[in-house]
Amino acid sequence: MARPIPEFAPVTTVTREEASIAGECTVTGVRPHLSALDLAIVSEGKTSSDALQETTVFAQRADALGLTRFWVAEHHNMRTVASTSPAVLIAHLAASTDRIRVGSGGVMLPNHPPLVVAEQFAMLEALHPGRIDLGIGRAPGTDHATAAALRRSPAALGAEDFPLHLLDLMGLLGDVRTEAGLWSQFAATPVSTSTPWIALLGSSGYSAELAGYLGLPFSFAHHFDRSSLAETARAFELYREAFRPSPMLDDPYAIVSASVLTAETRDEAEWFALPGRLVLLARHSGRFEPLKLPEAAANHPSIDDARALPTNRIVGTPDEAVERLEELAGLTHAAEVMVSTVTYALPERVDSLERLARAWLS
Predict the structure, then answer these.
(1) 300-332: buried (b, 16+ CB within 10 Å) or exposed (e) per residue?
(2) Strands 254-262 and 132-137, bridge-based pairing
(3) How would DSSP label each residue in 14-42?
(4) Mean pLDDT of the residues in the chain
(5) What is the radius of gyration, based on Cα positions, of the chain?
(6) What is the C-alpha separation between 260 and 74, in angstroms, rounded?
(7) Cβ atoms of residues 256 and 332 within 8 Å
(8) pTM of the prediction?
(9) DSSP string, 52-109
């Protein structure tokens, strides 16, 4: 019989200085923190090695620009996404950067035993103390057949036990909320001196309410491009309504992600956004196609349909992007905005981030 989610009063078991350093922000009068999310997308004509090297360079530039954190996603069996193992990629990126926090956006917990995830991130934290984030999601990050292969049984495809697995994972990493759990039998690492910063990711009211109930930071995937501003704002309302102070947070901490591409002019930004618009159109019909060169995208027979597709992506000059992001942050009361930049080539991605960072952090 499955254990019920317990009613509990948060119990302080560990000191949370790392959470304080990474998570406290007053948004009144100042812009929210700026962070980046990356999928290590394999563009047409390139390899997985190319994509991962580009992600490394992109993370290094985000570090130098002063961004708060750099997250990588978990996707499986997709020929256009090289980010299949967040923990491995995080280890490489943390070793390749100096000060930026590096983490998962996110680890899809139903795909993994909580003890395995706890061991991976406890080791990452031991290697890079104070710089590791563990963003947790409950979606599979792939199709049902691949999810069944990952979980070793079609019977494990449900996510009904997600809250209990999350509590076990948190307990293994030092945030004990229940009287008993995996943490009472197993240790994720022999002697820990600090813990990863744990956040719950989602694109629905369920994840928002669970994050609030557990007193965790909450990151909403507005970059998924399927939520209106009103829907995104409502998710954060649910998060704050459900929020309970916890050993990690005294107050809610909200992160909102967005797909952002900037350039010197709006026309130039729209040009470099064409490959991403084609990819979005393909995904609407269940296909995962690589990013094409802008020239190839502009001449694609479906480009007019791609341009006409409704989107919440932010494309334009840095000032236009800042205005849109400020609107998004204001509606969600986010302490942090996390941008995903989608275009074919690395130089344009870096240029977009540099222009946005200069405008946002000035």
Answers:
(1) beebeebeeeebbbbbbbbeebbebbeebbebb
(2) unpaired
(3) S--HHHHHHH----TTSPPEEEEEE--B-
(4) 88
(5) 20
(6) 20
(7) yes
(8) 0.88
(9) HHHHHHHHHHHHHHT-SEEEE----S-TTB----HHHHHHHHHHH-SSSEEEEEEEEG
